[in-house]
Each structure stands twice: as structure tokens, then as C-alpha cells.
Design brief:
Blueprint lengths: L7 E4 L3 H11 L3 E6 L3 E6 L2 E7 L11 E6 L2 H12 L4 E2 L4 E3 L5 E6 L2 H4 L3 H11 L7 H5 L2
Parallel strand pairs: 1-4, 5-8
Antiparallel strand pairs: 2-3, 3-4, 6-7, 7-8
């Protein structure tokens, strides 16, 4: 059964390059189809459409993609690959890739660390001081 809802990302002529980059970074990913206007691709079972719509619209942090990571090595790998060649680090586990798409690279245990109010306050204090998140620091908060 086809998913009825999937995101469309507006690029300025770089949809194929972006889709290729994302498919090279994330396992179980592939380009489904591509034409000069539209590239459909899949990352871990989630379908996306890249639209070569021109320079009119730009990405911003109002929409981001969350990547839950099981280990620090996984966080480091996604972080490094997504900021490579012109991406930008931001705060609190956020970054923008070279196309301007916002990503949140977070440890999968974050919701567990945020359950207890006192611990959550200490964890949040640490997060606010970080760019790339460090699992050990968060666990020890």
C-alpha cells in the first residue's frame, strides 16, 4: 500500500544531488524515480519528493528531520556527513545540510532522559550548551 502523505522538498535545481546525498548517508535508501522536475526517493521506508522548483523558496528551521541514533558513533557519523561540504552546525543537536535542510541528530534515549523532571532540567541545561549532542554528558547530567 502506498503512503498517502509524504514530504516534498523544494530545491533550486539540486533535487537529484540532494536525494543522492541522502541515499548515500542513510541505510535502506534509494532513488525511486527521477525526472528533470521531480525526484522521488526513500529513506528507511519513508518516501520523499524533491522538486526542482527554482530559487523562489528557501528551507528554514520551521521544518526539520529528526534522526534518532543508538550510539555516539552514529550521531558523529550523521552529523559529519550532513554538515560536510557547506553544511552548518547549529545548537542543541540541530544542523543544516549544504542544501539548507534542517536536521536534528539526537540520541534515541533522549525521551527517557527527559521523563523525570529534575533529571530533565539538568539534561536540558547540558543540551543548551552543545551543538552536536554528546550521549555520555547527557546520561551523566
Amino acid at each position: 500500500m502506498k503512503k498517502a502523505i509524504y514530504p516534498c522538498l523544494w530545491f533550486d535545481g539540486q533535487a537529484k544531488a540532494a536525494a543522492s546525498l541522502y541515499c548515500s548517508i542513510f541505510k535502506n535508501s534509494k532513488i525511486i524515480s527521477d525526472s528533470p522536475l521531480v525526484v522521488k526517493f526513500e529513506i528507511n521506508g519513508q518516501e520523499f519528493m524533491g522538486l526542482n522548483g527554482g530559487p523562489t523558496f528557501k528551507f528554514n528551521e520551521a521544518v526539520s528531520f529528526v534522526v534518532e541514533c543508538e550510539s555516539q558513533e552514529e550521531i558523529d557519523t550523521y552529523w559529519d556527513k550532513l554538515i560536510a561540504n557547506g553544511g552548518q552546525e547549529s545548537q542543541c543537536g540541530w544542523l543544516k545540510d549544504k542544501y539548507g535542510v534542517s536536521w536534528q541528530i539526537i540520541p534515541s534515549i533522549l525521551s527517557e532522559l527527559m521523563r523525570e523532571p529534575e533529571k530533565a532540567s539538568r539534561v536540558m541545561d547540558k543540551i543548551l550548551k552543545m551543538k552536536k549532542l554528546d550521549i555520555e554528558t547527557l546520561i551523566n547530567a
